[in-house]
UniProtKB/TrEMBL annotation:
Limits of the ABC transmembrane type-1 domain: 67-251
Protein name, as recorded: ABC transporter permease
Pfam families: BPD_transp_1
GO cellular component terms, A-Z: plasma membrane
Transmembrane segments: 78-98, 173-194, 200-222, 234-255
Isomerase recorded as keyword: no
Classification via CDD domains: TM_PBP2 (cd06261)
Main location: membrane
Organism listed in the record: Zavarzinia compransoris
Keyword Transmembrane helix in annotation: yes
Places the protein is found: Cell membrane
Membrane-related topology note: Multi-pass membrane protein
Keyword terms, alphabetized: Cell membrane, Membrane, Transmembrane, Transmembrane helix, Transport
BP-aspect Gene Ontology terms: transmembrane transport
Amino acid sequence: MTVRPPSPARRLLASLAVRRGLVLVLLAVAWEVAARVQNNPIMFPSFLETAAAFHAAVLDGRLLPAVGGSLAVLVEGYLIALAIGVVLVSLAVANSFLRDALQTVAAMLNPLPAIALLPLAMLWFGLGLGSLLFVLVNAVIWPFALAALSGFEAVPETHRLVGRNYGLKGPAYVIRILIPSALPQLISGLRIGWAFAWRTLIAAELVFGVNSGQGGLGWFIFRARNELFTDTVFAGLAAVILIGLLVEAVVFRGLETVTVRRWGMLR
């Protein structure tokens, strides 16, 4: 029996990028049709009007500085949270009491929306970078710590025995045995922490814009809303979504491709 090779269309649809691009095109068409039927650009601008506003905001230098400012704060808070999370998880792995303490504190604070801490952060650190970093760190540290701890606890006993047989201890044992074995959960924790941080930052910048008249992408959206430039509001929201898609496709998908998918730990 001869097996026919897949058709060019099927090979094209097998690409994840093509499938996701097709979904985005369908959503854009549905958006354009719905906006034309609704016929009220102040309330619901069309896709083409939003694309024009996005292009204009890039050309006149309003959008890109706002994006750069938000990403700079996000990366700083994200890295601080990861550093603290690694230390906490390392201590929890080594001591059962610290593990219980970490799980208890994480169970208390992880369900708490980070943006709910913003009034307290403003009281403690004032309006500025300190308050943003405080809520960002709280948004990232607990989901990442729980995912990392869960991953370390799920490392198979055979992997642990291999490490012990090679005489690995301390940091070498963690780096060469625990982290590679728990990498799928670690990447999942990084992805969840990134999503929490991104949405928390945009929400915090909206509030800061109310109070101090400055901010990044959130402030860009807030200012456009005040001026009733709804198409620019949608352009800012589109920038938030595009950055999220880009980070997911390039950073996390790329990290999975060169590690856990290559090693056969994830399909």
